[in-house]
């Protein structure tokens, strides 16, 4: 059995790169490692926190339990015919590398999700999405280790209860299931979706009509890189908040004052509005206090310019929430996983 390491700074394992120590820390390379680690934690009555690439997690305090870094690897073709291919991908594989592998093989369905930082195992937790596509669109099933029974269970798309930036793993099964692998179904004769405004505009400017998978992927990479900071260059966790869902009546009220307020359809009675727009309108875009700031090109991203502390990031995010609520009557909910210790 591997022994967990002690007092490890999580700064090096999270893309926001704020310091917080894990009392115990272990890398998981197999199901056997995972079972041993769970036993280790149980014996000592330690809390368990799972991380992948740490690209959507911020530890606000030292973590008094055991952090498991999932490093399970492997991609397996489990089924294939002339129109589809089914891939079973281990949770520790890098999401973007998987996207590039699929694009290189001309297997379609996840090209719009290029460059999203993180691991494959983290993707279902918040049903990652970008440019009009969400993981649930290609997701078939996953296998998870259930802490209540110490058994591996298969969960279908329907059971995962996917919705906007959420799934059963973020709510009912939070801290109760550890995702081991994910099976996706990709298309061999795929017509990619390039209808999202930014993508459409980019492809039009490039003179590309009826783009293929690779062209849409390249467009996503270009658009994303022009707006979102690369966490390897500037520490961040992507969108800090979810785009809020508000009633049509509140939207109509606000629209009288803010004629340019964008929205996306959500349901008959509700609309989704871009948090980035609200935060910019409230005057926070480009704001910086010490090393904590709001990214100048996308107000939805909180960045750490170097040595910001978790407390400074939290203070900035709370101030944004308060101000947006005062100005628009809209509550912003964090999209990142905030671990309080
Ligand atoms: N906007 C502003 N100011 C800003 C940012 C955005 O006015 O500072 C406006 C834009 O002009 C546009 C609208 O808000 O009208 C939407 O902006 P954008 O297309 O950049 O997308 P978003 O809604 O801010 C969401 C996802 C991103 C994803 C993009 C593209 C959430 C919380 N975020 O952002 O996901 O890449 O759409 O699909 O849903 C992530 O989850 O970490 C992430 C980056």
Structure description:
The chain has 341 residues and is α+β, with helices and mostly antiparallel strands. Helix content is 26%, strand content 28%. The protein has 8 helices and 20 strands. It has helices spanning 31-43, 95-104, 157-160, 197-205, 213-227, 248-257, 275-281, 310-328, and strands at 5-9, 21-28, 48-51, 57-59, 63-70, 75-80, 84-90, 129-130, 133-134, 139-146, 151-156, 177-187, 235-239, 245-247, 264-265, 270-272, 288-289, 292-294, 301-304, 337-339. The strands form 6 sheets. Strands 6-7-12-10-11 form a 5-stranded antiparallel β-sheet. The chain has a 4-stranded mixed β-sheet with strand order 1-2-5-3, with helices on one face. Strands 13-19-18-17 form a 4-stranded antiparallel β-sheet, covered by helices on one side. It starts with a strand and ends with a strand. The mean pLDDT is 97. The structure holds uridine-diphosphate-2(N-acetylglucosaminyl) butyric acid.
Question: In angstroms, what is the radius of gyration?
Answer: 20 Å
What distance lies between the first and last C-alpha atoms, to the nearest angstrom?
Answer: 26 Å
Work out the helicity level: 25-40%
Ligand types: uridine-diphosphate-2(N-acetylglucosaminyl) butyric acid
Task: State the helix count.
Answer: 8
User: What number is the mean pLDDT?
Assistant: 97
The shape is globular
Number of strands: 20
Q: Biggest β-sheet: count, sense, barrel?
A: 5 strands, antiparallel
Which strand order do you get reading across the main beta sheet? 6-7-12-10-11
Q: Secondary-structure element sequence?
A: EEHEEEEEHEEEEHEHHEEHEEHEEEHE
Instruction: Bin the strand percentage.
Output: 25-35%
Class from secondary-structure proportions: alpha+beta
Contiguous low-pLDDT stretches (5 residues minimum) are none
